[in-house]
Design goal:
CATH superfamily of one domain: P-loop containing nucleotide triphosphate hydrolases
Oligomer: single chain
Family: Belongs to the WSCD family.
Number of strands: 20
Largest sheet: 6 strands, antiparallel
Organism: Salmo salar
Helix content: 25-40%
CATH topology of one domain: Rossmann fold
Structural class: alpha+beta
Keywords: Membrane, Repeat, Transmembrane, Transmembrane helix
Distance between the termini: 98 Å
Number of helices: 16
Protein name: WSC domain-containing protein 1 isoform X2
Shape: globular
């Protein structure tokens, strides 16, 4: 009898283990299916899914479900702990009483709502459009007049002016203000987050129901659809009373030998002024307005008219006297203005059509202008750049490669601030971006205190955080360069200041290093649109010198060490402005 009971006991124990194993397997299988569905949505439409190691870019689960802490890699190997905190439960609150069915029912209902919200964030655009068709749309007051829903695709844009993106806060008002400030008459929204501007609508109108996506920052407001553009008219201002931002005088330039390749539009006006010429070129959607006497020309920068060799201003002043007796050589100079119109020859971007066999790093110390160089590379090559990290702010402003897995091979290069040997040897080659450490330290401190586009206040510079920041980050600036020179396999050194003063030659060198075929027109287009959306306005500085003599002694010694290491590695040394006086 005892033997029989012993066998029965062993059998029950094995059964329990077997059932436990089945339960764990069932939960794991369900989790894998959910993660795979999320991974498909995160990837670019129509592209293959990246491997599961890109999961940090997935939407966050409902916070009330009590997710454990997650560690995310940060700059220089540093880690930041992100704690998902529950929103519903507080010790000592009425919810702490877990007895009774009322609490259980309300808690389960809350969790179901959170799960439903999370599930909708993982749905495809097709599924979302079906849900939104059945959901009544609220009437949200609009700033401008709604023109309707129009066809749009990447090969034939309905509005061919400037393009901006905000995957988080886009509204119809924001888009209209952006287009109005750039002198455009129409503003169009697509995919709920993309804003297009133009003065002419070049596609057919379709049913308003096909623009079924809400704006990311304004629920109930139409923001286009998949291949559909919701078009608004911006505030109508009388000619001559318009005020444009970012109109700047480029200088006096000699007319190219083949003027027809540059001046695509020639306007004759009886009372021509620089303002009327600029307005005329904006209406024609050209980035350059050129004056010569009573003639107004509109066009682009081209290889025959690069705007890299300005002439003396007296040539333009003499040419504009309108005297017929002037020699012909003095009648061939233009006064050139840069209009707010975005050069549309380099605005389209995409992921690489085939997976790249080599992994190229775009490495820099924080604050060295990595984001700006990524913007230039995307304009020049037409391909997205990736990132070793995930910066939601950059993704929301149009850097779609920010959310792609950094090893996917779908981006032309990958941003990184890492400098350890193991991290360096993961890349086949590197574009090593170096900036003056004084400016880099101030730029990174500005970012830490006030974000990508803000400035630290005088109070920030006077706190103890600033000396501590310099003490730790200054040595990192030097070790970052030294490590990449030592362990990098194939290194292209780019100095931020040289890129500013000679953008096209430096950008040509970068694209050649990336094995990207780029036309001269596209490089000039990138130069025309070089500012982008992540340039701090003005050159605001603290009202006092934040660097103490001890700080300068430390930084100057590091500059000398890096300069010598560059020369020892057969690279050009640091620019003279870096070196201590």
């Amino acid at each position: 009898m005892a033997k029989l009971l012993y066998r029965l006991q062993r059998f029950l124990r094995r059964t329990q283990l077997f059932l436990l194993f089945l339960g764990v397997a069932y939960i794991m299988a369900g989790s894998v299916l959910l993660l795979q569905r999320a991974n498909l949505v995160v990837t670019h439409r129509g592209a293959t899914s990246p491997p599961l190691s890109s999961l940090p870019s997935l939407p966050s689960p409902p916070r009330a479900l009590g997710m454990p802490p997650v560690r995310v890699g940060g700059y220089g190997g540093r880690s930041t702990q992100i704690m998902a905190r529950g929103q519903g439960y507080k010790p000592g609150s009425p919810l702490d009483d877990r007895t009774g069915t009322r609490w259980l029912m309300s808690r389960n209902l809350e969790i179901r709502h959170l799960r439903r919200r999370w599930f909708h964030s993982l749905m495809t655009e097709k599924d979302m459009s079906q849900v939104e068709r059945s959901t009544p749309r609220r009437n949200v007051p609009q700033k401008g007049s709604y023109m309707g829903c129009f066809l749009d695709n990447s090969k034939k844009r309905a509005l061919k002016g400037s393009v901006s993106t905000d995957f988080r806060k886009m509204t119809s008002t924001m888009c209209q203000d952006t287009c109005s400030a750039s002198g455009y008459q129409f503003a169009g929204l697509e995919y709920g987050s993309e804003c297009y501007c133009g003065n002419h609508i070049t596609s057919l109108r379709v049913r308003d129901e096909e623009c079924n996506l809400d704006c990311k920052g304004e629920k109930g407001s139409p923001c286009g659809g998949v291949g559909r553009l919701s078009v608004f008219t911006v505030e109508d201002v009388l000619p001559g009373q318009r005020r444009y931002r970012n109109v700047r005088y480029r200088g006096c330039f000699r007319e190219p030998e083949i003027s027809s390749s540059t001046s695509l539009v020639h306007l004759l006006q009886p009372n021509l002024t620089s303002q009327s010429c600029i307005e005329a070129c904006i209406n024609k959607e050209f980035p350059l307005a050129m004056l010569r006497s009573l003639d107004c020309f509109c066009g682009y920068a081209t290889p025959d008219f690069t705007l890299h060799e300005p002439a003396e201003e007296e040539h333009c002043s003499q040419s504009n006297t309108t005297e017929a007796s002037l020699p012909s050589t003095l009648q061939r100079f233009y006064q050139v203005y840069q209009t707010p119109v975005q050069d549309s020859r380099c605005t389209e971007r995409k992921f690489l059509p085939e997976k790249s066999s080599s992994l190229v790093a775009l490495s820099s110390f924080p604050g060295a202008g990595n984001t700006w160089v990524r913007h230039l590379i995307e304009l020049a090559t037409g391909y997205y750049t990736g990132s070793y990290y995930f910066d939601g702010t950059l993704y929301n402003r149009g850097f779609k490669g920010e959310k792609d897995y950094w090893k996917s091979g779908r981006t032309i290069c990958v941003k990184t601030h890492e400098s350890g040997r193991r991290e360096i040897e993961m890349y086949d080659s590197v574009i090593l971006l170096i900036r003056n450490p004084y400016r880099s330290l101030m730029a990174e401190f500005n970012r830490k205190c006030a974000g990508h586009l803000g400035y630290a206040s005088d109070q920030h510079w006077k706190t103890k955080e600033w000396p501590e920041f310099v003490g730790s980050y200054a040595s990192w600036w030097a070790s970052h360069v030294l490590d990449w020179l030592r362990f990098g396999r194939r290194v292209l050194v780019v100095h931020f200041e040289e890129l500013q003063t000679a953008l096209v030659p430096q950008l040509r060198s970068i694209t050649s290093f990336l094995n990207a075929t780029v036309t001269e027109d596209r490089l000039l287009c990138a130069e025309s649109n070089q500012d982008g959306h992540f340039k701090r306005s003005g050159a605001r500085q603290p009202t006092f010198d934040p660097f103490t003599p001890d700080m300068r002694g430390l930084i100057d010694g590091l500059i000398r060490a890096v300069d010598q290491a560059l020369r020892d590695s057969n690279h050009t040394g640091l620019p003279l402005e870096y070196l201590p006086r």
